[in-house]
């Protein structure tokens, strides 16, 4: 099978009539969806297995809470740098090669990370944690940047719907990672979770080489950082930052808090984290469909979701000045509330930035999609650095309750600023990405109408 053939047939076919029934997906689109779903699932399950047991293991190896936060945070810094580079040069590197190479690097790093328990405690262990996580971050940045860009290229009329559907598999990875990692750690020790899941990621490499299409495109002369001259894009990027900061904060601090406060084992902590991932997983496809069908709702999904996320963090501790006693059921409920609100906020942001880029006159092609993907990844990674590092510092010097409250304040500020912007620009025209403005070489059958 030649993946380029189906994609070319789709590109050369005449545009679908806007008044007719929606066209069915081509075989290549179905295979591409399967491929990207496998990338999201395998990448996120390998990323999320650390949460339940690694902080406790790192403490045994001589790492403080602040150092643990920095280990999580360095991943985000390198992911930020990698996202900017990969997003800018995706056309020159090639989207397919970038994705496959990123998977290969991530799988190798996951396996190596599972062998670090054999390293002596102290500086040697901590240093190798930083090195392996940093290299892994570049691989992850390559895989996810190309996934976002290829989604926008192959499904130009239904970006949010497809992204929302793919987030089901992202959510499944986040759901299965913590409990699976915790149970494997309890049963077999430190090495087995990383070795098993690293091999799973490695299997995805030949599969994606076979399935993914090769997309040809011309490099754009548009400026990467010109996107940040538009106020709405800056505010949306800040909201993206607050979302990932919250997730990063929970990765680095929640397991230790639950173990100390409720005397839970690593396996039970993994089950608690289901409360965060499951609602996000279930809400994302519906939110993606609604925001594609009614683009004007994107702005208020982002604002209301950000506000709800802030409330969830305020009540997660809960914040000390409320004088509410922390209870396990309340923690689980608030994690579910945060997971649902994260879906409300995150899914509409990517198509909203794409729309803004096209409104500024950017070319409607892979190069622009790569730049938007890189920008999204860079701000997401910035939050993933801020969350563990600042959250770890506040937790170490105060407590988890105050650290969660600070994270809620950061999310509330983003929702408030964006709401003020939208209220001051009520008549701003939202150009649709679905109509006649798209060149014929990107005309592909609709996923939904």
What does this structure look like?
- The chain is mainly α.
- It has a single domain (27-428), classed as Up-down Bundle (Growth Hormone, Chain: A), CATH 1.20.1250.
- Helices cover 75% and strands 0% of the residues.
- It has helices at residues 3-12, 27-48, 50-60, 65-88, 90-93, 95-113, 123-154, 159-188, 191-211, 231-262, 266-272, 274-293, 298-316, 328-346, 349-359, 366-397, 400-424.
- Helix 6 (95-113) packs antiparallel against helix 7, helix 8 runs antiparallel to helix 11 and helix 10 (231-262) packs parallel to helix 16 (366-397).
- Residues 1-22 and 428-449 have low confidence and may be disordered.
- Residues 32-429 form the Major facilitator superfamily (MFS) profile domain.
Defining key terms:
449 residues; MFS_dom; disordered C terminus; globular; mainly alpha; Growth Hormone, Chain: A; Major facilitator superfamily (MFS) profile domain-containing protein; membrane
Distance between the termini: 29 Å
Give the helices and strands as they follow along the chain: HHHHHHHHHHHHHHHHH
Q: Describe the sheet with the most strands.
A: none
Q: Under CATH, the topology is which?
A: Growth Hormone, Chain: A
Provide the CATH top-level class. Answer: Mainly Alpha
Mean pLDDT over all positions: 77
* Relative strand content: under 5%
Radius of gyration: 21 Å
Percent range for helical residues?
A: over 70%
Shape: globular
Helix tally?
17
Number of strands: 0
Poorly predicted ranges (pLDDT <50, ≥5 residues)?
Answer: 1-22, 428-449
Class by helix and strand content? mainly alpha
The CATH homologous superfamily is termed MFS general substrate transporter like domains
How many structural domains in the coordinates? Answer: 1
CATH architecture: Up-down Bundle
């Amino acid at each position: 099978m030649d993946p380029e053939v189906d994609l070319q047939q789709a590109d050369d076919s005449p545009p679908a009539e806007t008044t007719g029934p929606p066209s069915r997906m081509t075989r290549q689109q179905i295979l591409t969806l399967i491929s990207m779903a496998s990338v999201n699932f395998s990448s996120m399950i390998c990323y999320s297995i650390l949460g339940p047991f690694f902080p406790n293991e790192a403490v045994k190896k001589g790492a403080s809470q602040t150092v643990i936060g920095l280990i999580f945070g360095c991943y985000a810094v390198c992911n930020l740098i990698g996202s900017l580079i990969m997003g800018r040069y995706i056309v020159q590197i090639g989207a397919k090669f970038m994705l496959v190479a990123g998977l290969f690097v991530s799988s190798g790093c996951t396996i190596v990370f599972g062998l670090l328990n054999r390293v002596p405690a102290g500086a040697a262990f901590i240093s190798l944690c930083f090195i392996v996580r940093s290299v892994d971050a570049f691989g992850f940045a390559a895989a996810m940047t190309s996934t976002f860009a290829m989604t926008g290229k192959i499904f130009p009329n239904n970006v949010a719907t497809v992204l929302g559907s793919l987030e089901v598999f992202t959510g499944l990875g986040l759901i299965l990672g913590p409990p699976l990692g915790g149970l494997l750690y309890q049963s077999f020790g430190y090495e087995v979770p990383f070795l098993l899941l690293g091999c799973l990621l490695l299997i995805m490499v030949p599969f994606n080489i076979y399935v993914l299409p090769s997309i040809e495109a011309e490099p754009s002369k548009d400026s990467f950082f010109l996107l940040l001259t538009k106020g709405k894009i800056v505010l949306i990027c800040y909201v993206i930052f607050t979302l990932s900061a919250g997730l990063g904060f929970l990765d680095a601090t929640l397991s230790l808090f639950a173990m100390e406060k409720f005397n839970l084992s690593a396996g039970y902590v993994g089950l608690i984290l289901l409360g965060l991932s499951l609602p996000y997983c279930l809400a994302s496809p519906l939110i993606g469909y609604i925001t594609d069908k009614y683009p004007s709702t994107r702005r208020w999904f982002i604002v209301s979701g950000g506000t709800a996320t802030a409330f969830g963090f305020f009540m997660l501790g809960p914040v000390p000045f409320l004088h509410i006693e922390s209870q396990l059921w309340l923690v689980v409920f608030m994690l579910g509330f945060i997971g649902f609100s994260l879906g409300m906020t995150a899914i509409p942001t990517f198509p909203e930035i794409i729309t803004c880029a096209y409104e500024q006159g950017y070319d409607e092609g892979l190069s622009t999609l790569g730049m938007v993907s890189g920008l999204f990844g860079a701000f997401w990674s910035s939050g993933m650095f801020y969350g563990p590092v600042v959250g770890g510092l506040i937790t170490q010097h105060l407590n988890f309750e105050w650290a969660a409250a600070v994270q809620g304040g950061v999310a509330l500020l983003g929702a408030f600023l964006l709401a003020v912007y939208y209220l001051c620009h009520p008549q701003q025209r939202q150009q649709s990405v679905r109509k006649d403005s798209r060149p014929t070489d990107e005309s592909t059958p609709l996923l939904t109408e």
